[in-house]
Prior knowledge:
Strand content: under 5%
Largest sheet: 2 strands, antiparallel
Number of strands: 2
Structural class: mainly alpha
Order of helices and strands: HHHHHHHHHHHHHHEHHE
Number of domains: 1
CATH topology: Cytochrome C Oxidase, Chain A
Amino acid sequence: MRASAAVTSxxxxxxxxxxLPLAFILTGLFALCVGVIWLVARPDxxxxxHYNQYVIAETHLFVLGWxxxxxxxxxxxxxxxxxETKLYSETLARWHFILHCIGFIGMVxxxxxxNMKQVGHFGSVLGLGLGLFVYNLAQTLRRVPKWNVTATxxxxxxxxxxxxxxAGLAIATAKSLNDADSLSSPVGVAAPLVRGxxxxxxxxxxxxxxxAMHAHAHLGALxxxxxxxxxxxxxxxxxxxLSEVQSRTRAVCSVALLxxxxxxxxxxxxxRWRWKLACALVVITALxxxxxxxxxxxxxxxxxxxxxxxxxxxxAVALLLPLSILAxxxxxxxxxxxxxxxxxxxxxxxxxxxxVITFAIIxxxxxxxxxxxxxKSYSRQVGRAxxxxxxxxxxxxxxxxxxxxxxxxxxxxxxxxxxxxxxxIRWGSLSLGLSLVALLFNVALMLTHFFKPKLKPLSPHTPxxxxxx
Length: 469
C-alpha cells in the first residue's frame, strides 16, 4: 500500500487522465508510421535538395504529427509529475488535441498540394490549439512549489515553439499573398485583416526564403525539442537511474547558453550574419555542458544496469556530436551552396529530427507508456494482488532489435543522403521501419495491460512490492 500511496501522491489529489497523453502518443505513432512508409515509397525526397513541397510536407508530418504530438502528450503528464504540481485544465487539453489533429493533418495535405493559403488556414487552427497548450502549461507552471532548471527549460521551450508557429504562419502568409487572386482590394470588415496580412507579407519578403525557412526550423527543433530533452532529462534521468544532478551550475549554464545561442542563431540564419559560426559555437558549448553533466549523473547512478530505454536516449544524445560538427561546417563563412552542401543540409535536418529527437523520444516512450498503463491498471492493486513490474510489460528482445535496426537505418540513410542515392535511402528507411515495427509490437504488449490487466492472487508468503519499476 505504501507504493501505491507514494505513486498517487506524485500526481496530487486527482491524477490526470492517462487517456489524454495516450491519445497524443498514439496519434504521433500513427503519423510516424505514415512518414516512414512515405519515405520508403519516395526515397528521392532526401536524395535532392529539400526546398520543395514534398519534403516540406514530409518534414511537417514528422515534426507536427509525430514529434509535437508525442511531446505535447508527454508534457501533459510529465510536467505536473516532474514539477510536483497538477495540470491546470484537462478540458483545455482535450480541445487542444482536437485542434492539433485538424491542424497538422490539413497542413501536411496542403503543403503536399502547395496550397499556401489553406496551409495558413489550417496553421491557424494548429496555432489556436498551441495557444491552449501554452496557456494550460503556463498556468500549471505558476503552481510549481519550487522553481528549478527543468521548469526554466519548459518555460523557454513554450516560448520558442510559440515563436516558431508565428514565424511559420508569417512565411505561409507571405507565400500565399504572392498568388494573383490574393491581391484584390478587400472591402468591409475584412479590409483591416487583409491589410494586416499584407504588412506581414511585406515584412517577410525582406528575408531570403530559404534563410527564413531555416530560421523557423531552428526555433522549433532546437528551441522547443532539444530544450525539452535537456531540461526534462535533468529530472527524469536521475529518477530512472537512481542518481541526482551533480552540478547545478552546469545544468543552469547549459540551459542559459542554449537560449542565448538559439536567439543569436535565429537572427544570424534569418539575416545571413557573418557571425553565424560564433552563434553556433555558443549552442555547441551549451550541448557540451549538458553532455558533461549527463555523464556525471550516469557515473554516480545507483542502478548500475542501463535498460534499453535509457540506452536509446543516451545514443540519441551521443548523436549531438556529429550534428554539432555538421553545424560548424554549414555555418562556416563563405560556404558555397552546391550539391554537396545542399545534401549536408539534408543530412543535418535528418540527423536532428530522426537521429537525435526521434531516437530520444522512442527511448522515453519505453518509460512513459508503461508507467501510464501501469498506473491506470495496477496502482490501486498494489498490496491486494500480484502486479507486474514495468519491465514485464514489454519485450526486451524486441527493444534490442529496434535499437540496432534504428542505428543501422540511420547509418545507411545518412550515407544515401550524402551520396544522393535513393536506393541507399530506401534500404535505410526500411531498417528504420523494422525498428518501428519492434516499437509498435512492444506498445501493443503494453496496451494489453491497459485493456486486460494481468493480476494474480497474492499468496500468503508473497512480499508486498515497495516499488513498481
